[in-house]
Amino acid sequence: MNILLLILDGLADRPQQALGGKTPLAAARTPNMDRLAELGTNGLLIPLAPGIPLESEFSHFLLFGYPSEQFPGRAAFEAIGRGFDIPRDNVVLLASFATTTLVEGKVRRETILWEDQRPQDEEDCEQLCAAIADHENQGVGFKLESCGRCEAILTLSGNPSRFISDVDPFYNGAFVARALPLAEDVNQENAERTATALNQYLHWVRRCLTAHPINVRRQQQGLPPINFLLTKWAGVRPQVPPFREQNGLRAASVEHYPLYVGIARVCGMTSVSTPQQLDIGADLREKLRAADELFRQGYEFVHVHSKAPDVAGHRKDPIGKQHALEAIDSALGPLVQWIEHDPDLLIVVTGDHATPSSGSLIHSGEAVPLLIAGGPNGLVDDVREFHERAAIHGGLGRVTGADLMPLLLNLTDRIRLHGVRHQRQSRLYWSGATEVFTIWGDE
User: Which residue range forms the structural domain that includes residue 354?
Assistant: First the structure.
């Protein structure tokens, strides 16, 4: 039995005044998602713990069946998704070019350049990146490589610590943070050295960028200066087992965003990128066609991702998020047909976190609607609609991100009986004997 996991990024939300007190999902007209809910069993997904908001990469990592202690840091996924290699014992950071101002000596973020999307910015960032590409202090080497969209990968060498805090304050108008050593590092001296080196590098970066001829020219043109690097999400070379070894399934992922390409590559999944389309429904229809083809090629687990709800949520546009969800639903007719005609397909629809379309939070800690439909083993509950309030009454109840893969392996008759062990490593799935007993000598 095959599994299709459709992740609608930032799906869940809060009641919105602009929608009469409904969430965008509850306000949206979604006949296909409602039909899938009616055909399956429903519940609420709590990615980690009640009230704790997660970022997409950590939520996906848990949903794919990996333990949190193996998480390599988001910048690792970002780098690998953009085609960068991470040398062993190095640390990578995602760095965003930004416009900052000084307020009594403190650096304040005004905007990050990729938000403005001016063609001139991209070219200028490429040249500025070359000007600050190499640096060393405190025994830590810094190598900056552009990855497009006014962003770059910053690689730290010289036995750095990964346990350093984010510099990016994540909000325009907020003061930039100093890099700090994190308490989790048992080698606090090395974490302190790394954080100090990064702060000194960024101090040097601001001076170099402020005086650069490109920024002199931008000032003459009335353009904002590009005068800082905002770093975040320290990561290291991943050491995780492939998805097939972890979960016993041949797996693929359909998405073009570098973060999700990186997650797929790190997890040993085949990554398929379809051409990005501005039309939300058309974009998802193309991804579902790719998923169908992957199943025909023998893949047993296919992850499909849509970023559209998250984008609207970050714009703080509840009506726009409602419309995005309606556009997504318009592409899901084939899923209903697949469920009704293919007894060997399990369809899962959920989100990775809540992205509230009002208020100040980036992500919030609300539970996310979850439906599982198809196959002969799942119970059908009484839920007839797919949204946050309806999911409360579903047969799945509340499950965590770490619960999802065991649920799916159980529903597809792949789960290992607890207490039976044939493998060196403990795995969730039933594999039988990996080393068969043989007779030696004469009998």
Answer: 2-69+241-411
Question: What are the helix (H) ranges across 49-89?
Answer: 56-63, 74-81
Burial of 296 (0-12, 13-18, 19+ CB in 10 A): exposed
Q: Would the pTM of this model clear 0.90, i.e. be above it? A: yes
Same-domain check for residues 282 and 365: yes
Do 310 and 340 fall into the same domain? yes
**How many distinct structural domains can be found in the chain?**
2
Q: Is the dihedral of CA 387, 390, 394, 398 positive or negative?
A: positive
DSSP string, 276-315: P-SSHHHHHHHHHHHHHHHHHTT-SEEEEEE-HHHHHHHT
Q: What angle do CA 260, 266, 267 make, to 5 degrees?
A: 90
Residues 203-257: tens digit of each pLDDT: 999 999 999 999 999 999 999 999 999 999 999 999 999 999 999 999 999 999 9
Nearest to 52 by CA among 313, 298, 323, 368: 368
Cα gap 19→389, rounded to integer Å: 15
Residue 194 lies in a domain: yes
Helix, strand or coil, per DSSP, at residue 101: strand
Smallest CA-to-CA distance from 422 within 430, 411, 433, 414 is with 433
**What does DSSP assign to residue 44?**
E
Residue ending a domain, choose from 235, 267, 301: 235
pLDDT digits (tens, 9 = 90+) for 134-148: 999 999 999 999 998
Q: What is the DSSP letter of 395?
A: T
**CB atoms < 10 A from the CB of 228, how many?**
26
Amino acid (1-letter code) at residue 378: G
Do the domain assignments include residue 94?
Answer: yes
Distance of alpha carbon 410 from alpha carbon 403, whole angstroms = 11
- Considering the domain architecture, whether residues 112 and 177 belong to the same structural domain is answered as yes
Q: What are phi and psi of 422, to 5 degrees?
A: -120, -5
